[in-house]
Design a protein that fits this description.
D-Maltodextrin-Binding Protein, domain 2, alpha/beta, elongated
Length: 246
């Protein structure tokens, strides 16, 4: 028994302290920015964000179905409203953290259009946008195409990505000739060119986040939300092409 007790003591001394984590659901346009923010936050607090990236609509649906995410960073207000209304997240914690922008991105070897009207040219035989039903960036893309009078000319050429990352992947691999994507993805993607889309052509992409659940992990989520809103967080977000909330 003495040997067993001694072994337990040795193992106890050598064991590492339990690692704190916080589970996060984040819109796909945030992938590169939140990967960097997550590492910086972990270095500062010793809390590791475990981030799942997908379309805002898909993530909201998972939260409504009971998925254990404690911070939800959406690319649009609607899906934040949904999880709050359904009692899954804390209404008092909602705040805007960024405003997104969309661009037309084309891969190397394809001449970037000078305007949205040019997407009607036959050389753009396949054009990708994110699914407007579940992705705020896809909704903004569709609105811009409709308001510019291009949508009816290209609707039968449009390919839908399940989120904005998948939409960018279509263009990067040559599956489409052009894609309307988040500027935050375009600025970190080599080998292509992009055309800025006038914000007046679509509803603002005001991105919000909210804390969900209770307990220690929810408190960690509040710390992460505060870090995103800090000067350090703002520096990262602006570097990835986001505009700070008005």
């Amino acid at each position: 028994m003495r040997h067993v007790a001694l072994l337990a003591a040795v193992l106890g001394c050598s064991a590492k302290p339990t690692e704190r984590t916080v589970r996060v659901a984040a819109a796909a346009d945030l992938t590169r920015a939140f990967e960097e923010l997550g590492k910086a936050f972990e270095a500062k607090t010793h809390i590791r964000p475990l981030i799942t990236f997908d379309s805002s609509g898909s993530l909201a649906k998972r939260i409504d179905q009971g998925a254990p995410y404690f911070l939800f960073a959406s690319a649009g207000k609607k899906f934040i409203d949904d999880v709050v209304t359904n009692g899954k997240c804390d209404a008092t914690s909602v705040h805007s953290y960024a405003r997104g922008h969309i661009v037309v991105w084309v891969p190397k070897g394809v001449q970037v259009p000078k305007s949205l009207d040019e997407l009607a040219d036959p050389r753009f035989a396949r054009i990708a946008i994110a699914n407007p039903e579940i992705a705020p960036y896809g909704k903004a893309a569709q609105e811009a195409l409709q308001r510019s009078g291009v949508w009816d000319k290209i609707a039968d050429r449009v390919k839908y990505g399940e989120n904005i990352q998948a939409t960018m992947q279509f263009a990067k691999t040559g599956a489409v000739d052009a894609a309307i994507v988040a500027r935050s993805l375009a600025v970190v993607t080599d080998g292509g060119e992009s055309l800025e889309i006038d914000e007046a052509l679509h509803q603002p992409i005001d991105q919000q986040l909210v804390v969900c659940g209770t307990g220690e992990e929810a408190e960690a989520a509040r710390q992460l939300a505060a870090y995103i809103a800090s000067p350090e967080g703002h520096e990262v977000m602006t570097r990835y092409g986001f505009v700070l909330p008005p």
